[in-house]
Design brief:
The complex is a heterodimer. Chain A has a domain at 69-226: 3-Layer(aba) Sandwich (Glutaredoxin), CATH 3.40.30. Chain A contains seven helices and ten strands. In chain A, 31% of the residues lie in helices and 17% in strands. By secondary structure, chain A is an alpha+beta fold. In chain A, the strands form two sheets. In chain A, strands 3-2-6-5-4-8-9 form a seven-stranded mixed beta sheet. Chain B folds into two domains: 2-35; 40-181, Glutaredoxin, CATH 3.40.30.10. In chain B, helix 4 (106-117) links the parallel strand 3 and strand 4. Chain B is globular and about 40 Å long. The chains are: A alpha+beta, B alpha/beta. Chains A and B meet through helix 1, helix 2, strand 1 and strand 10 of A and helix 1, strand 1, helix 2, helix 4 and helix 5 of B.
Chain lengths: 231, 182
């Protein structure tokens, strides 16, 4: 019996040793954590230059309707939705890992927002010559795989996304019925990990509109893939 | 009874064997990673720990590129940043590559990528998931699309939400900083 106990202890020891050297990056993390004291004074006035000022809609602007081809072959405009109270226009695509991480959340979002009168309309802004995975044919395949129950439109010729000023996928523009832009940005506050979401920006924005209030925040930022265009 | 103890002993031995094999495999792979110099890969879980690297006030020009291994245009332009690092090192130009790879892909994608490319520029990883709080701190007009590049020294800053097509294209963005310095 004593022998057994010894063996068990030996195994425990082994496992601990194993754990200790299995995560070199985690260990490095602790070592390199930059101390706050190292932070230099950055309050000095510095000239800021922004090379690319993206044109496009700002919150409060009125958007222009579009007419784009859906994956089912039909042409879709916002004007087709007679009973909608507004629209969740999402620029997204097949190929961007962030867009992919949002696919399931987009399906859920549409369920919630459609019920409130704000259907999701997804638009792929990418040039398939640059990104073959985002071709119209591949959009049909992906939508079927995931079971998209909202329109997935192709911005053929890339005429629509520049008007909105979409710069990346995913990029959301929440519009009211008269196509006033009410909110621009991310779907929620945790693009990396759905389990860490604590703020559902788009749903909150719609709740604010329903109360007759302005969304706050009305502009949020998230990392995404740049819209793919020929240079 | 005797039989039971025997089988128990056998299973414990077996477990021990399995554990040590698994352990050997892990340490072998971590040795590989360590040789890739990635044991020093700094990972910033919060933007606040990276922030000082974007606000230094010495005589160096810093070129900070935000990228990820999953971002094709980012990977395509990395060689230009490496060339910039090599060419202008004597003129006090320093390149900092900030990887925005997914936290769950650092070991599986980023570490092997860095091992493969052997980049000369400094690589830091930022995994702060609360993007809306830190993106505007890098630049208030940045939508969050990558690649994106910040150039700064102690007196001026410029931000480019775009990719660069060539080394020449990239060097243009540091020219104003070089002439200013004299």
């Amino acid at each position: 019996m004593k022998k057994l106990l010894f063996l068990a202890l030996l195994i425990a020891g082994f496992m601990t040793a194993c754990q200790q050297n299995s995560e070199p990056v985690e260990t490095a993390q602790a070592a390199v954590n930059v101390t706050p004291g190292e932070k230099e004074d950055n309050t000095k006035a510095v000239a800021t230059a922004v090379a690319i000022k993206t044109p496009g809609y700002a919150v409060g602007d009125k958007a222009e309707d579009f007419k784009l081809k859906n994956i089912d072959g039909s042409m879709v405009s916002m004007a087709d939705y007679k009973d909608a109270k507004g629209f969740v226009v999402v620029f997204t695509c097949n190929s961007c890992p962030y867009a992919v991480r949002y696919e399931d959340r987009l399906i859920e979002l549409n369920k919630v927002t459609s019920a409130k009168g704000y259907p999701v309309i997804a638009v792929n802004p990418n040039d398939p010559d640059v990104k073959p995975a985002d071709s119209f044919e591949k959009m049909i395949v992906r939508a079927e795989e995931k079971g998209f129950d909202f329109p997935y439109l192709f911005d053929d010729g890339q005429k629509v996304y520049p008007k909105f000023g979409a710069t990346k996928t995913p990029h959301v523009f929440l519009l009211s019925k008269d196509l006033t832009v009410e909110y621009i940005g991310a779907i929620d506050n945790s693009p990396n990990d759905p389990s860490n979401v604590t703020e559902k920006y788009v749903e909150n924005a719609i709740a604010a509109l329903d109360k007759g209030e302005k969304p706050d925040p009305s502009l949020t930022k998230a990392i995404g893939c740049s819209v793919k265009t020929k240079k | 009874m005797k039989l039971r103890i025997n089988s128990l002993r056998t299973s414990v031995l077996l477990l021990l064997l399995i554990t040590s094999v698994a352990c050997a495999q892990t340490s072998e792979s971590s040795q590989k990673k360590a040789s890739a110099k990635t044991s020093a890969l700094p990972i910033h879980k919060e933007f606040s720990s990276l922030e000082s690297l974007l606000n230094r006030t010495n005589d160096t020009i810093y070129v900070v590129n935000f990228w990820a291994t999953w971002c094709k245009p980012c990977v395509k332009e990395l060689p230009y940043f490496e060339e910039l690092h090599n060419t202008f090192a004597s003129k006090k130009v320093k390149v900092l590559l900030v990887s925005l790879d997914f936290p769950d892909q650092i070991q599986t994608k980023l570490v092997p990528f860095l091992h493969d490319k052997q980049l000369k520029s400094d690589v830091h990883v930022l995994t702060d998931g609360d993007m809306n709080s830190w993106i505007p701190q890098v630049n208030k007009d940045w939508s969050g699309a990558i690649p994106a590049t910040l150039v700064y020294n102690k007196t001026q800053r410029a931000f480019y939400e775009q990719s660069f097509d060539s080394f020449e294209d990239l060097t243009k963005i540091i020219k104003p900083f070089l002439t200013e310095k004299k």
